[in-house]
Amino acid sequence: MGDQIQFIVEKLNQEPFRKNYNLITFDSLESVQLLQLLNDVLGEIDPKHAVDIREELPEQTGKRMLSLLGILKYKPPGSISDLSAFRQGLVTGSKSVIHPVLHWLLQRTNELKKRAYLARFLVKLEVPAEFLQDDTVADINKQYEELMEAFKNLHKECEQLKTSGLSTAEIKRDISAMEEEKDQLVKRVERLKKRVETVQNHQRMLEIARQLRLEKEREESLAQQKQEQKNQLFHAEQRLQRAQLQLKEMHHAVVDSKPESLMKKLEEEINFNSYLVTEKIPRELESKKNSAYFLQKVVSEPAMSQSDLSVIEIKINEVNAQINQLIEKKMMKYEPIDSKFSMYRQQASIISRKKEAKAEELQAAREELSGTERQMLHKTSQAHELEGSEVLKGDELKHYVNKLRSKNTFYKKKRLEIAEITAEYGILQRTEELLKQRHEAIQQQLQAIEDKKGISGYSYTQEELERVSAVKSEMDEMKGRTLDDMSEMVKKLNAMVAEKKASLAPVIKELRQLRQMCQELTQERDEKKIQYDSCAAGLESNRSTLEQEVKGLLEECVQEESNYRYINCMKRNLEIQLERAKEEMKAYVSPDPQKRRKAIREQYTRMILEQENLGKKLREKQKVVRESHGPNMKQMKMWQDFEQLMECKRECFLKQQSQTAIGQVIQEGGKDRLVL
C-alpha cells in the first residue's frame, strides 16, 4: 500500500498535474478533495470530464465516473467483491476505493487516453427493434455502422503511419534547434563561470545560495501548512461552538420538558420522516420518472408533419367526445351511494393535499430554522470577537425569551391561518382552472362537431335560445305570461335557426370543396418539394465536385507558372554564359595582342607561369636552407656555449668583488679595536 501511494504521489507531482504533494499532504486529503483529484485525472484522460464536482450532485458524479471507468474496462480489486460497496465508496470518496483507481489510471494514462478517444466513436448506440422497422431509421443506422467501420480502418492506417517513424526533416529541425539551445546554454554557463571565478570562495558561496533557496522553499511550504492548520483550527472551533450551542439547547429542552412531551416530539418527527420516505418522495420520484419517460418517448419518435399533427388532434377530439358521453351517461345513472363515495373521495383528496402542503411547510420551516441557527452562530462569534458588546443575562434574558415565545406562538397561529387560507385558495383556484379547461375543451369539441356536421354557429344559437328562454321564464314569472307566448317565441327562434341553417348550407358545401382542393394542393406541393430537394442535393454535389476540379486545376496552373519562371531563369543564365563563352572565343582568336591579354585563358596562363616561377624560387631557397642547416646549427650551439661561459665569468667576477669588500670591512674593524 505504501508503494502504491508513493507511486501516485510521484505521478501527481509530474506533468501535467503538478500537484506538489508529499505522503503526508496526500494522506490528509478529505473525501471531496480526493474525488476532485480523481475527476482531474479522468479529465486528463477524457476532456469531457474536466468539470468541478461541486457544481453537480454526488449521484451524477458517481454515475459519470462509473460510466467512464466501465468504458476504460476497470475492474475493482479482489478485496472489493460487492459492486454496490464499490459504488458507495466511489460516491463518498473512500480512500480504500479511490487509491487503487488512481494507481490503475496513472499506470496507463496514454493507453487510457487512446481508449477514451476511441470510445467516443466506437461505442455503438443501441436502437430498439421497433424503431428499426422504419425504413429511414434503418438506413441511418446502416450509414452509422458503415461510418464506424470506416473510422476503424482510418485509425489503423494512422497508427501504422505513426509507428513507421518520424520524417527526417522534422528530426533534423529538432536536432538543429537543440544544438542551438545547447550552444547558447554552454556560452551562458561559461560567462557565469568567468564572473564567479573572480570572486573569492565562490564554491562556498554557491553552496550557501543553494541552501538558502532550499530553506526558502521549505519556509513557504511550512507557512502553507501553518495556514492550513489555522483554517482547520478555525473550523474545529466553529464545530465546537455549534456543538456547545446544541448541548445548551438540549439541556434547556430537557429542563423545560417532560418525558411524555419528548416522546411525543420524537413520534411526530418519526411520523413526518416516514411520511416523506414512504409517500411523498416515492410519489415525486414516480412523477419525475414518468415525465422523463414521456419526454424520452417524444424525443425518440420521428419528426411529425402538419398532417400527422392534424390526425392526432382529430383522434384527441374523438376521445374527448367519448369521455364526455361516458360522463353524461354516468351522471344520468346517478345513485346516492356513489354520491356519498364521491364526497368522501373529495374530502380524502382535500386532506391529502393539505397533508402534502403541511409537509412542505414543515420542511421549509426546518430549512429556515437551520439557516437561522447558522446566522445565530455567526452573530455570536461576532459578538465574542467585538469588545464591549452587551449580552443579556439573568432576568433580562428570561424576559426577552418569554417575549419571543409569545411572539413566536402568535406568529405560528397566524402562519397556520395563512397556510390554511392559502391551501383553500389553491384548491379553489385549481378547481376553477379545471372547470375552465373543461369548459373550453367542451366548447372546442362542440365547435368541431358543428364544423364537421356543417352547422357552425348552432351552439351559439342554442345559447342564445337558452338565454332568451331564461329571460322569457323570468319575464313569465314576473308578468305572468302564458304558455302560448313561450311556444310562439320558441317557434320563432326555431324558424330563425332553420333560416340560418338554410343560408349556411351552400357556404358549407363550398368550404368542403375548398378543403379538398387544399389537401390536393398540399400533397402536390409536398411532392414538388421532395423533387426540388433531390435536385438541389444533386446540384450541390456536382458543384462541390466542380469546385474540387477547379481547385486542382488552379494548383496545377500555379505549379506550371513556377516551372515556367524557373526555366526562364535557367535560360537567361545559360544565355549569359553562352555570351561570355563567345566573347572569350573572339578574344582568344583575335590577332590583337591587347584583346588577347584580356582573355580569361591568357590571364590564367600568366597566373600559372607566375606561380610556377615562384615555386622554382622557393624550391631553390629550400635547397640553400637545407645545405646550410648543419653549419648554422653548429654555429648556434657554439654561440650558446660562449654565452654560458661568459655568464659563468660574470658570476665569478661578482663573487670576487663581494669577498674583497667583506675583507676590507673586517680589516677596518680590527684597526679601530687596536686604536681603542
Automatic annotation (TrEMBL):
- The membrane-spanning stretches of this chain are none
Source domain of life? Eukaryota
Q: Which Pfam families match?
A: IFT81_CH
Which is one Gene Ontology cellular component term of this protein?
Answer: intraciliary transport particle B
Domain IFT81 calponin homology intervals: 3-126
Q: Which GO terms describe its molecular function?
A: tubulin binding
Location(s) in or outside the cell: Cytoplasm, Cytoskeleton, Cilium basal body
InterPro entries for this protein: IFT81, IFT81_CH, IFT81_N_sf
Alphabetized UniProt keyword annotations: Acetylation, Cell projection, Cilium, Cilium biogenesis/degradation, Coiled coil, Cytoplasm, Cytoskeleton, Differentiation, Phosphoprotein, Spermatogenesis
Q: Which GO terms fall under biological process for this protein?
A: cell differentiation; cilium assembly; intraciliary transport; spermatogenesis
Coiled coil spans:
137-246, 309-375, 511-584
Q: Carries keyword Transmembrane?
A: no
Q: Which residues form the signal peptide?
A: none
User: Record's family?
Assistant: Belongs to the IFT81 family.
Return the PANTHER family for the record: INTRAFLAGELLAR TRANSPORT PROTEIN 81 HOMOLOG (PTHR15614:SF2)
- Entry function: Component of the intraflagellar transport (IFT) complex B: together with IFT74, forms a tubulin-binding module that specifically mediates transport of tubulin within the cilium. Binds tubulin via its CH (calponin-homology)-like region. Required for ciliogenesis. Required for proper regulation of SHH signaling. Plays an important role during spermatogenesis by modulating the assembly and elongation of the sperm flagella.
Protein name per the record: Intraflagellar transport protein 81 homolog
Q: Which gene encodes it?
A: Ift81
